[in-house]
Amino acid sequence: MEIIMHKRTALLSVITVLFVQFVFCQTATDPFDSKAVDSVAIRIMAEYKIVGISAAVMHKGVVKLAKAYGKKSLETGELVELTTQFAVGSVSKQFTCACIFLLQEDGKLSVHDKVGKYFPGLTRANDITLLDLMNHTSGYPDYYPLDFVDRRMMKPITLDDLIKEYAGGKLDFEPGSLWSYSNTGYIILGRVVEKITGEKFGTFLERRILKPLGLANTSFEPTPQNKTFARGYTNFAFGAPEPAIYEANGWIHTAGGIWSTASDLAKWDLALMDGKVLKPESYKLMTTARVLSNGRSANYACGLGVGMRNGFTLHSHGGAVSGFLAQNMFMPAMKAAVVVLVNSDYAGDHIGELQNKLASMILAADPSMKPFVPTIPGLPASEAAKRFLQSLMTDSVDRRQLGEEYSIFLTDEKIRGASARLKEYGEPEKVQTDNPGERGGMEVTVTRFDFKKGSFKALMYRTPDGKIQEFLVF
Description:
Elements: E1 20-24, H1 34-48, E2 52-59, E3 62-70, E4 86-87, H2 92-105, H3 130-135, H4 159-167, H5 183-197, H6 201-213, E5 219-220, E6 233-234, E7 242-243, E8 258-260, H7 262-273, H8 280-286, E9 305-309, E10 312-321, E11 324-331, E12 336-342, H9 350-365, H10 381-393, H11 404-409, H12 412-422, E13 430-433, E14 437-439, E15 442-451, E16 454-462, E17 468-473
Antiparallel strand pairs: 1-3, 2-3, 2-12, 4-8, 5-8, 6-7, 9-10, 10-11, 11-12, 13-15, 14-15, 15-16, 16-17
């Protein structure tokens, strides 16, 4: 399961000119196919009015693709470049946690310190730890639970006033008993860093992390008014993109105040995995899912979701502030990472399609990452699915191609009914099959068919003898 946060940092015109800038390492057999990424990115930009994208994929510690698409500003027409910084929202939280761990390594605090040591006036401050804040298990209410900038956030607020208002009242639950996303805890963590160091958080972050790691295109709470930064956009109910209203000063800070590029975030992921940021014991705690008081896992560590893909551990987090969305995930076993940033806060699930395309390249590049899938002789899955769909449309199914049980299930009546309904779609304009999986010794695929009048998908199971054991349209 992959954990991705979609809220606006939980603090969470069709494009007519597209510019693609990229650097990549590729050979004739290299799975990191630039054109395949382009086809997905350009299509989703056109279909969903996404203004600009920054994306990167890393494998075995090497950035294989770093790409930029679209515009950083609709008003000026400037194009996204590889060095264009996007607001990354809650992806910032892993940086905030790393700063806390660095101070623990310096002997200046413990992640098990009570909040009351730094903010004695807050609710249950002597029962809640800094680790609780990092794990989202404190019970402090989230000050930014909605996905738009409301009237409160149009006015500046001091960090301490924000903390007092949202961590000084009633808790949402008993500390440690539940997991509930709360930006409030991360504002407290940032202020703890400032209280201990006597520095602004951004200064500490720059000195201890950004400069040592060479993250030259990463900034904390910049004033994004020059060509280095993308402009954020929003829309409502499928409307045209319009400039987003940003949150006022004080509302983002260490819960989501970092701006960066896809390449810089991939470098950050690698530095974490390589032990260049934290000592092993700190990294282990930062990436270990919290176990709640009832024994259940929160599937969340410190600024990082914890999940599995093909049996390998995966860490991921999303981010969203007004005008921007971000997705960052990395897989330590392969020293692999995928990063997608957009300056369109309505892109939502659509950037997940691009992220999955990049992730599939990692799986294709390393056989150890691939799940077991039986070899099926004859036609590839996409062609087999297309031909069988055509036989359904024309009421000409060859039962010799079917497994016994599916042939019995697929009665002549079912075929006639399917033919009457499906033939109206005509010939598919596009056929695309997802990466195959396995179940019960069979190849399992999902194929998408796009027609002039719409689209649908088909789930197909095939055994190693090539016979179709299931074909269901949805």
